Amino acid sequence: MSLSVTGDPVLLQDDTQVSVGIDLRPGTLTLTLTRNGEDFAVHHALVEFTSVDGDPWVAHEVTFSAQGRDGKPVGITVDLLNEAWDGPRTGVPDAVWKVVALAATSAGDVGITYVPPGHA
Fold first, then answer.
1. Which pLDDT does position 22 carry in this prediction?
2. Taking the model in full, what pTM does it have?
């Protein structure tokens, strides 16, 4: 195969979204999710980052793939931004922010830098 490429790649941040998935295997991160009194074993997280009009990247949503005690799969989504989309939502557990920070580290190659709320 012959391949020729010219030019320089450019990453534009105009209304851009990046989704980063991380496997939460036993021993790598222990995370128990409880919703309405029911515990779920979490095995995967998909973190969505967004940057609008060149603004800094922010994590706006995490979707966890999990299983309940009955063994049935379930998806649980956590909104990370407040209603005005100008800051973090209050009451999000620290463990969720740790998952976001792990995903941001994995996404560093696309220019995402991330500091957890309150640590800037």
1. 83
2. 0.74
